[in-house]
């Protein structure tokens, strides 16, 4: 059975699992995870116009080989480079060559090479020679590139003068857009870690604490649970910074009655959680105007979730939340925090059909200066039937006027 067919058949039957390996139930099979990711990528490559892919993004080197590198705030060309071949194992060039030889036995000696040096022209030429040792001449071939700089582009065109270069990122995104069983389980674990971070942040939220102290509580909890990194620098925005929305955390002292947007994401095995809730600080009732704005955002996120069914399009999902959207309603997630499908206003002109196995995060917004801003977010997987909304953390009940019929976690303590 093809991977996509098996994903469709099993969706809706998955359960939340622990993170340890056990003998008494089926959990994440990391060997299968690596094999199926590589298989999907090679199928996408064979169906594309490219003969090979040169992959420079760190997260996609991990997707293709299982190589884990530290997650920095900027891409570092050459730290992890993969040559993807359509029918053979990928070739990994890594700065951690000895470490990988010892701990990644699924890659043969031929497939592990020392780091590619793209900082100097001579390094690019030497790497090109190394590539052709295993691929053969690339003259007359088409190679997809996912990321490059001006220097790298010049070097590659000089090293491969008779090779056509095309956008290889689209090839990998086609492979990554349908998640396997193991990928979904990784995403759910990442979400559980993120929800624990949200709970810690909510408990730390009280009048007189700073935004950065609230974030520190979330970050500590997620890291203690095994989160490899966080989705971004993470956001705690309070009071006037919720409308217009300021997307970073500062040292502002949070005051009684402030609305507080918390947007965080933990990382499990390279896969990302992403969760946003808006709280009110202190033992105080929100204003009616705040409740009405929050309700608009709350209804928007659940209406968008309800529209996330196979056969609908990204435009249908966007329309279900419109007009309570900032520049984007949401995005997919996987080994990068932001992957297709996307939900921007442009989906009206170029809608994408939803298929079982697609995963994405929906995060509408409603705000008005002087009242406050409200952002909320759920994560889900498209199935053959109703969407699998696997975000279970409740919303701020003091803001909710009417509980949405799809929301099974909010309102239970009223």
From TrEMBL:
Peptidase M24 domain ranges (all copies): 186-384
Creatinase N-terminal domain span: 37-172
Protein name, per record: Xaa-Pro peptidase family protein
Pfam family, one: Peptidase_M24
């Amino acid at each position: 059975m093809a991977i996509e067919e098996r994903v469709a058949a099993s969706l809706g039957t998955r359960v939340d699992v622990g993170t340890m390996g056990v003998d008494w139930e089926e959990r994440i099979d990391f060997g299968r995870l690596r094999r199926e990711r590589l298989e999907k990528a090679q199928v996408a490559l064979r169906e594309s116009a490219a003969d090979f892919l040169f992959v420079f993004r760190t997260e996609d080197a991990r997707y293709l080989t299982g190589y884990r590198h530290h997650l920095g705030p900027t891409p570092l060309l050459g730290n992890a480079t993969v040559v993807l071949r359509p029918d053979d194992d990928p070739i990994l060039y890594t700065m951690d060559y000895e470490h990988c030889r010892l701990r990644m036995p699924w890659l043969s000696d031929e497939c592990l090479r020392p780091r590619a040096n793209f900082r100097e022209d001579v390094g690019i030429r030497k790497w090109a020679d190394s590539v052709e040792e295993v691929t053969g001449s690339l003259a007359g071939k088409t190679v997809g590139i996912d990321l490059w700089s001006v220097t790298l582009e010049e070097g590659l065109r000089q090293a491969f003068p008779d090779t056509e270069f095309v956008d290889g990122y689209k090839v990998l995104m086609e492979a990554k857009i349908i998640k396997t069983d193991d990928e979904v389980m990784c995403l759910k674990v990442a979400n559980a870690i993120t929800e624990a971070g949200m709970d810690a942040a909510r408990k730390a939220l009280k009048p007189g604490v700073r935004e950065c102290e609230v974030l520190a509580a979330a970050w500590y909890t997620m890291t203690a649970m095994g989160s490899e990194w966080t989705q971004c620098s993470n956001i705690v925005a309070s009071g006037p910074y919720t409308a217009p929305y300021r997307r970073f955390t500062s040292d502002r002292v949070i005051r009684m009655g402030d609305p507080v947007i918390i947007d965080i994401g933990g990382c499990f095995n390279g896969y990302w959680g992403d969760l946003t809730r808006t709280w009110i600080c202190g033992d105080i009732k929100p204003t009616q105007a705040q409740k009405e704005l929050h309700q608009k955002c709350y209804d928007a996120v659940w209406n968008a979730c309800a529209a996330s069914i196979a056969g609908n399009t990204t435009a249908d999902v966007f329309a279900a939340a419109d007009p309570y959207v900032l520049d984007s309603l949401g995005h997919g997630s996987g080994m990068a925090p932001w992957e297709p499908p996307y939900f921007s206003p442009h989906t009206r002109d170029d809608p994408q059909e939803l298929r079982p196995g697609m995963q994405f995060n929906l995060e509408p917004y409603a705000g008005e200066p002087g009242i406050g801003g409200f952002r909320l977010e759920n994560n889900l997987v498209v199935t053959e039937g109703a969407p699998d909304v696997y975000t279970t953390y409740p919303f701020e009940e003091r803001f909710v006027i009417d509980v949405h019929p799809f929301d099974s976690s909010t309102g239970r303590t009223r």
